[in-house]
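Supplementary Methods, section 5.1.

A reviewer requested that the exact input to the structure prediction be made available. We therefore reproduce it here, unchanged from the version used in the analyses.
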Amino acid sequence: MSQPQFRYNQKTLRYERVRFSIWRAIGSFIAYGCFGFLFFMALNLAQNFFIETESEKALRTENEQLNTYKSVVENHLATSNELLAELKDEESQLRGKLFDNTTDNTIRESSEQDTYLKASMTEDWNEAYSLIQNRFQSLLKKSKTTNNFYGDRLTVDKSDLPMLKGLPSASPVKDLNEQNLVSGFGVRINPYHKGNYHHDGLDIALPKGTEVLATGEGRVVSINNSRVEAGFGNYIEIDHGNGFVTRYAHLESIKVNWGQKVTIGQVIGLSGSSGGSVAPHLHYEVLKLGVNLDPIYYLVKGIDAKQHQLLSIKSKTQNQSLD
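The structure derived from this sequence is encoded cell-by-cell as follows.
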C-alpha cells in the first residue's frame, strides 16, 4: 500500500495531506507518455543513422551489386541487338541472292529490339530481367536455326569448286542496272506479232558496240554469224560444265573462236541488233541440260542484295521484249 504524501501549506504554515486528483493523474500520465515516446524515437533514429546491422549491410551490398549488374546486362543487350541487326542484314542479302527474297517471314520480328531495350530501362527490374533472358534465348535459337538452315544447303567441298568456278554467276555486261534491263524471263509480248510468247532470257538494252562479257569460265561451243533479220542473229554459246550453257545473242561482232577457253569477265563480243531484234540490246540466256532457266537467279557476283532485288522486280514485269 502506498504511503500518504504531505505538502507544506505556506498560508496555514502546516503540513497537509495531499488528496488524490484525477486531473493531476491524467497530466502525469500524458507527460510520462510523451517523454517515453520521444525517448523511443530518439533511440530509433540513432539506430537507423549510426548503427548498421549485419542484415542491412548484406542488403546494401546486394543492392549495389544489382545496380552494377543491371548496367552490364543493359550494355550486353544493346550489343546483342546490334549484332542481331547485322545478322538480319547479312541474312537478307544472302537470301536475296540465293532465293530471290530479301525478307524472311518465318524469322522476322517487328520492332522488337526497341521494345526490349526500352523495357530494360523501366523501374520494374524483375520484368526487365525476364525480358532480357527471353531475348537472349530467342537470339540463340534463331542463330542455331539459321546456321542449320544454311549448313544443310550450302555445304561445299573441294569437288564442288570446279562447278562453282564455272557457274555463270557474273553479269554479262558492266554496270548492269534495272534501267537497261528491258525484259525478263517468262511470258512476254512479241514485238512483231504482238502476241504472248515465252521469252527465254533477259533483254538488256545497250548502245551498239558495248562489250559483252563471259559470265563464267568455260569453252566456246557454238558461234553463229548471220545476216538474216530473224532469230538470234550473231550469237555465242559457252559450255560451263555440269550441264550449264550460256547464250549471248544479237551481237554486232564476235571476239572469240570456236573451242576457245574463256574466263569469267572476258570480252567475248560487242552488242548490236542482228537477227530478229527491234533495237540494240543483248539477249542473254542460261540453260541447264538444254532447259532454259531464269538468268536473274544466277546474277550474284558483284551485285548486292538491294540491286539484285531491283533487277528481280524489273525482270518480272510483263512487257514487250526486244526480240
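Residues 6-50 form one domain. These observations are discussed further in the main text.
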